[in-house]
Amino acid sequence: MISLLKEKLAEVLQAMAPLVATVCLLQFTLVHAPVELFIQFVVGSMLAATGMLLLLTGIDIGILPMGRFLGAELPKKQSLLLIIAVAFAIGFAVTSAEPDVLVLGGQVDVVSGGAMPRQAVVFVIALGVGLFTALAMVRIVTGWSMRNILMVSFLTALILAWVAPATFVPLAFDSGSVTTGVLSAPVMISLAMGLSSVLAGRSAVSDGFGIMGFASIGPIFAILLMGMLLS
Prior knowledge:
Blueprint: H1 2-31, H2 35-73, H3 80-96, H4 99-111, H5 118-142, H6 146-163, H7 168-178, H8 184-197, H9 204-208, H10 211-215, H11 217-230
Helix pairs in contact: 1-2, 2-8, 3-5, 3-8, 4-5, 5-8, 5-11, 6-11, 7-11
């Protein structure tokens, strides 16, 4: 445990050091923000680093092993419907708790003046991720070509972006990017790798990866369709 904490602490410090150093450099050379605000930044950075350390350690200890176990156990039930249901539930749940998604939903709520509530935005994004996570698991089971599915999906997304209200297009594509966060990515990738590892003749590289790229298309569809329905 201690060695893992040290390893994750090094990763967190390496990730945050450039941001903290840049802000400190700007503070003492160009910006000169109020002392209270700068102290808030320092304290907030320390709290964020602590949170990231605990989150990454928890992911390695429990979430990744459990995700791989679930993925490996589901095929033993010999029910494609069960695989779809579990994949949808996990995709929806982790996206609803994804920090990046919550931040985006909060910003949309503020900018729209409450016209697009945070919970509604988060729900629509999570719904899109859940549906496409389920489709990604079906693809692993059936062996469909990821290349063909991605081509059709992105082409459809571009068509929807052309006909949807222009104000929803930037939000749709930002929604697709924020779903690949620190919580959702490990869960869904480990689930896909566990599923592919027990299927005969499958490669964990070609089948276990790509799920996040595919799942991130779901929110694009969901937000664009929401815009079309609300317009």
